[in-house]
Specification:
Blueprint (H helix, E strand, L loop, with lengths): L1 E4 L5 H10 L6 E5 L6 H11 L14 E6 L3 E7 L6 H6 L2 H5 L4 E5 L13 E8 L4 E7 L4
Parallel strand pairs: 2-5, 2-6, 4-5
Antiparallel strand pairs: 1-7, 3-4, 6-7
């Protein structure tokens, strides 16, 4: 599945389209270069999931936890600053990932071996010549 985002005004529609097509999947690994729009897109997803007050990127806290009336518990991880899998284990990442809640994970390569098989890989690419983001979603849920 591919979703194209040509401007920030496309984000609500793109987030809704993403949610409508995610099936039973709950764990999403967002792969992209720094500054490509991972947090911006996840923020749009959180809004579409009924979260009114989004705390922004959990760069320093590593995880923000939200409660949605429609979707239940949602974990938003930003693992950019962790140095090892042990550090992720220290914050209880396995308990959160395996708790049957939604997980949106930025910088998932830092904990690759801890991720379950059913994780859905989401690649965000920025096109150089135009202001366009491409979300490439790989998984069996689409």
């Amino acid at each position: 599945m591919e979703i194209r985002i040509e401007s920030l005004t496309d984000l609500p529609f793109a987030a809704t389209q993403f949610l409508e097509n995610m099936g039973d999947a709950k764990i999403f690994a967002f792969h992209a270069e720094m500054g490509t729009g991972k947090t911006t897109f996840i923020t749009a997803l959180l809004h579409a999931m009924g979260i009114k007050e989004v705390e922004g990127s959990p760069t320093y806290s590593l995880v923000n936890i939200y409660e949605s009336e429609m979707y239940g518990t949602i974990h938003h991880f930003d693992l950019y600053r962790i140095q090892s899998e042990e550090e992720a284990l220290d914050i209880g990442i396995e308990e959160m990932i395996y708790a049957d809640s939604f997980c949106f994970i930025e910088w998932p390569d830092k904990i690759e071996r801890l991720l379950p098989e059913e994780v859905v890989k989401v690649e965000i690419r920025k096109q150089e010549d135009v202001r366009l983001l491409q979300l490439i979603i790989e998984g069996n849920y689409c």
